[in-house]
Structures are given as structure tokens and as C-alpha cells.
């Protein structure tokens, strides 16, 4: 597959704009952000007869922080509770008005495996209110949100909080499998003789700890290695990746300074004070980025630390309701959540191409085109992953050979993509990113006067997600 892609796509023109074009896009984005709010463009609504309208009332997140920094002493349920309480406080929603809570996470702490439930109880939510946790790698919060949509659409609930959490500062580390089996057997031993016999079988190698795997179970390959091969297959240059990383950090910094990241809460960290900003946003220069060495495939790879999303701690939460319930409670919704799809591909050569597969499916499902989309919020796992997806969507060969489609999706306009930064700069707490994407899309629609947003993300296992969001009428 990779060799076929290289052969057919190596002559494609580069999609990433050069530095001057990126600067122009940033200037355009900044002026758009600073202008007065524009009335949403008049397009057809995606409401469907007989289908309940589900709205997003508000979305929040804790500051996303580099792992091993300020949240170093927090467990996942601490961050999840902070996001949940922040959402309730921001919306003045009574705790007893919540019908259900669902959170996404990836690397689970065994003591709080249902982190949604522990966060809810810690936040003072009634023990009568159910909560469950889902996992779907980097689209876990996306799955949490769509699960909430399903609960409301089915008439099971009217008010659901969905979100996600991840802390890479407190990853569970286990004994080796042989040691675990020995200890479990030892726990069942009834006599001293049995215990001594089992203890005598323990070898030094048994004591080697097992760290959480950052490789694909099915391929035994890290996501970074897959991304490096993907960029080579699609002919994405090192220069293009550095430019995109530079763009992400520059746009995130401008959005942060302009107060556009209004979903970020202030969180009190005991012993460290109040934290209210993401700390991974680090604008640099192209000259500095060019000095960085490849991090995965050495020495000839093209992916560097700057063009990769970093290990992040953080949590997010969104308040979803049926439209009738939101209006009855006096809320002004921000957006409708419309059609969504989940897709799955080959986890080796197409691990990170979820957006390419999911985008045309969700557009067809909604009956709109790429040109109708005003705001794009795509997960930035790697700069090369984003650029490879852009090339895939603009390739007739890829559409026909890999997707079984007659023609390509088209050119995704870079001037509409991730204008307030993305996972490369804001951070990527695995289980929380999906809710950040949706909230950013909703807030950008409101600020920029758009009507439709498309949210898309890739995930480990070769999976992907896309959703259409429609601005609520002013």
C-alpha cells in the first residue's frame, strides 16, 4: 500500500502553503477574529423531520498542560471533576438537572476505571445519576459526545454532560505478566510451603515493569513511525511540516492573546496556585524548527518534536440537551449537533487517514459539500498527518483506488482550518481532545458568522470520526 501511494502521489504539488502564504493566512484569520460578530450566513438548516434537535449549550476545558508539569500530582478523576464543576458553574446548571454523564479516556487508572462516575461523585453530583466511561483512542471524547447524542435522541435523557480526560503524568505502571501471575497465585496459596515454593520461582526478569504501550497492538509500530511512513508515501516534505507546525503555534498564540480561547477554565492546583492558560503554545521561528532532528525514524525521517503533538494532561466537558429542554430552562444554545460518522481502515498503512475517509461520508450523509463548510477543526496528531490527509482528499487516485469513490473530495481551504491553533500547539490529552475540537468549532462559528463546521479526527487502530455542527440561529 505504501509503495503504491508513493508511486502515484509523489508528483502531486505540495498542498501546504509556503511561509509567506501562511503569514497571509494568519493575517486574514486575525483580522476576521477582531472584527465585530457577523450575522450567520443564510443557508438551509440540516434539521430533519421527525428527528429531535440536539444542541450544545456550552463547552469548557481545563488548561491543557505539558505532562510532568503543573498537573503532576493530579489523577485523571481530579481533572475530570475540575472540568465538570467548571461547566456546571459556567452554565449555572443545577447538579440535579443532569440526567447522565459520559466521559472518554484512553490510559485508565485501574482504581478509577469508570472515571466519569468518580468525577461525578467527587463533584457532588447525586449518586442517583448514572455515569459511564468510553474509550476509542484519540476519538474517545468524540464517542462520548455521540453516545450522549444517542441517549437524547432516543428520549432516554434530556440533559447529558459529555467529555474526556487524560493525564500522562500519572500513567499506571504494572508488574510484568509473569510477576502478576505469580502474585495472583501466591494470593491463593493456603500453606506456608506453597507460598515459599511460589516465591522461589520468581526471577530477576519478573521485576521488570511494564509501561503503557505507545505502540499499535496489531502492528507493534508507534504512531510516529506510521506517520513518518505516511508522509513519505504522500510526498509531504520536512519543510511543509515545519511550516504547518509554525502556523499552529502562531495561530494558537494569537488566539490566546486575543482572548478567543474562552472555553479554558481557571483551575486551582493545590500548592501551585491558579492556572488559566495552556502551557504548550511555543511560537518559534522556521530557522529554529529546521534545526530539530527527526524523532522517530533516524536519521532520515521528517517528523520532529515540533511537528508532533506532545504528551498532555487535561480534561474537557460539554453540556448537551434536547432543544426543547434547553429553551425551557432558559438557555440560548450555541449550536446543533448534526450528522456524524465513525470509520475504520487498515491500522498499518492507513492508520492516520481517518479524516480522509470520514469527511466525504459525513458530507454525503448531511447533503452538503465541502464548499458549504465555514469552519474546519481537524485533530493535529502530526503536521505530516494533517498534510497527508489534505493530499488524500485532493487525489482522484486515492479516492478511486483506496476509497472506492468515483472522484476526490476536493481541496480543503487552509484559510478555514484550525484558525485558533490545534493539537500541535494547544496540546492533546488523548481522551479530551474530541470535546475541545467540537467546542472550538462551535465558538468559531459564532465568532466568524459561519453556519456549518466540520470536525474530524484520526485515532489509533486506524479509526476516525467526523461530525457536522450547525450554528444556532441568532
Quick summary of this structure?
It is built from 16 helices and 12 strands.
Q: Your description of this structure?
A:
This protein has 474 residues and is α+β, with helices and mostly antiparallel strands. 37% of the residues lie in helices and 16% in strands. It has three domains: 2-38 and 218-261 and 281-309 and 337-464, 3-Layer(aba) Sandwich (Peroxisomal Thiolase, Chain A, domain 1), CATH 3.40.47.10; 54-172 and 314-328, 3-Layer(aba) Sandwich (Peroxisomal Thiolase, Chain A, domain 1); 177-207, no CATH class. It is built from 16 helices and twelve strands. It has helices at residues 2-9, 19-34, 76-91, 115-122, 140-153, 177-188, 192-200, 223-233, 238-257, 286-290, 323-328, 354-366, 383-393, 396-401, 423-426, 433-448, and strands spanning 54-61, 65-66, 100-104, 131-134, 159-166, 267-269, 273-275, 312-322, 335-344, 375-378, 452-459, 463-471. Strands 1, 2, 3, 4, 5, 8, 9, 10, 11 and 12 form a ten-stranded mixed beta sheet that branches. A two-stranded antiparallel ribbon has the order 6-7. It catalyses: dodecanoyl-CoA + acetyl-CoA = 3-oxotetradecanoyl-CoA + CoA; hexanoyl-CoA + acetyl-CoA = 3-oxooctanoyl-CoA + CoA; an acyl-CoA + acetyl-CoA = a 3-oxoacyl-CoA + CoA; butanoyl-CoA + acetyl-CoA = 3-oxohexanoyl-CoA + CoA. Keywords: Acetylation, Acyltransferase, Endoplasmic reticulum, Fatty acid metabolism, Lipid metabolism, Membrane, Mitochondrion, Mitochondrion inner membrane, Mitochondrion outer membrane, Transferase, Transit peptide.
Amino acid at each position: 500500500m505504501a509503495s503504491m501511494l508513493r508511486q502515484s502521489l509523489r508528483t502531486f504539488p505540495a498542498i501546504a502553503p509556503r511561509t509567506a502564504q501562511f503569514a497571509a493566512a494568519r493575517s486574514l484569520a486575525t483580522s476576521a477574529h477582531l472584527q465585530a460578530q457577523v450575522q450567520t450566513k443564510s443557508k438551509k438548516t440540516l434539521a430533519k423531520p421527525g428527528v429531535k434537535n440536539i444542541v450544545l449549550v456550552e463547552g469548557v476545558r481545563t488548561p491543557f498542560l505539558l505532562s510532568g508539569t503543573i498537573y503532576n500530582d493530579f489523577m485523571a478523576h481530579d481533572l475530570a471533576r475540575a472540568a465538570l464543576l467548571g461547566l456546571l458553574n459556567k452554565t449555572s446548571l443545577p447538579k440535579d438537572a443532569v440526567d447522565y454523564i459520559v466521559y472518554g479516556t484512553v490510559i485508565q487508572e485501574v482504581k478509577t476505571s469508570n472515571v466519569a462516575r468518580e468525577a461525578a461523585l467527587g463533584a457532588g453530583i447525586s449518586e442517583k445519576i448514572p455515569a459511564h466511561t468510553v474509550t476509542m483512542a484519540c476519538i474517545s471524547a468524540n464517542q462520548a459526545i455521540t453516545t450522549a447524542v444517542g441517549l437524547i435522541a432516543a428520549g432516554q435523557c434530556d440533559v447529558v454532560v459529555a467529555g474526556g480526560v487524560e493525564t500522562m503524568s500519572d500513567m499506571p505502571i504494572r508488574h510484568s505478566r509473569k510477576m502478576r501471575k505469580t502474585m495472583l497465585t501466591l494470593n491463593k496459596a493456603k500453606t506456608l510451603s506453597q507460598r515459599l515454593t511460589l516465591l522461589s520461582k520468581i526471577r530477576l526478569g519478573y521485576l521488570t515493569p511494564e509501561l503503557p504501550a505507545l505502540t499499535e497492538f496489531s502492528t507493534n509500530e508507534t504512531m510516529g513511525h506510521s506517520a513518518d511512513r505516511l508522509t513519505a508515501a504522500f510526498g509531504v516534505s520536512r519543510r511543509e511540516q515545519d511550516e504547518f507546525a509554525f502556523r499552529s503555534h502562531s495561530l494558537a498564540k494569537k488566539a490566546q492573546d486575543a482572548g478567543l480561547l474562552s472555553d479554558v477554565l481557571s483551575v486551582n492546583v493545590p500548592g501551585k496556585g491558579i492556572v488559566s492558560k495552556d502551557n504548550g503554545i511555543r511560537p518559534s521561528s522556521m530557522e529554529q524548527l529546521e534545526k530539530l532532528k527527526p524523532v522517530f525514524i533516524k536519521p532520515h525521517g521528517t517528523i520532529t518534536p515540533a511537528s508532533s503533538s506532545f504528551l498532555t494532561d487535561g480534561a474537557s466537558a460539554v453540556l448537551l440537551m434536547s432543544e426543547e429542554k434547553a429553551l425551557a430552562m432558559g438557555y440560548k444554545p450555541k449550536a446543533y449537533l448534526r450528522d456524524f460518522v465513525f470509520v475504520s481502515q487498515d491500522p498499518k498503512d492507513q492508520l492516520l487517514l481517518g479524516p480522509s475517509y470520514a469527511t466525504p461520508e459525513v458530507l454525503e450523509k448531511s447533503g452538503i459539500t465541502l464548499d458549504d463548510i465555514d469552519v474546519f477543526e481537524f485533530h493535529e496528531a502530526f503536521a505530516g498527518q494533517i498534510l497527508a490527509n489534505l493530499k488524500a482528499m485532493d487525489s482522484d487516485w486515492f479516492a478511486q483506488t483506496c476509497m472506492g469513490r468515483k472522484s476526490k473530495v476536493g481541496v480543503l481551504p487552509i484559510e478555514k482550518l484550525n484558525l485558533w491553533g490545534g493539537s500541535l500547539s494547544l496540546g492533546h490529552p488523548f481522551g479530551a481532545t474530541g470535546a475541545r475540537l467540537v467546542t472550538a468549532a462551535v465558538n468559531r462559528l459564532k465568532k466568524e458568522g459561519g453556519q456549518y463546521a466540520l470536525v474530524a479526527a484520526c485515532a489509533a487502530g486506524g479509526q476516525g470520526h467526523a461530525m457536522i455542527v450547525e450554528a444556532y440561529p441568532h
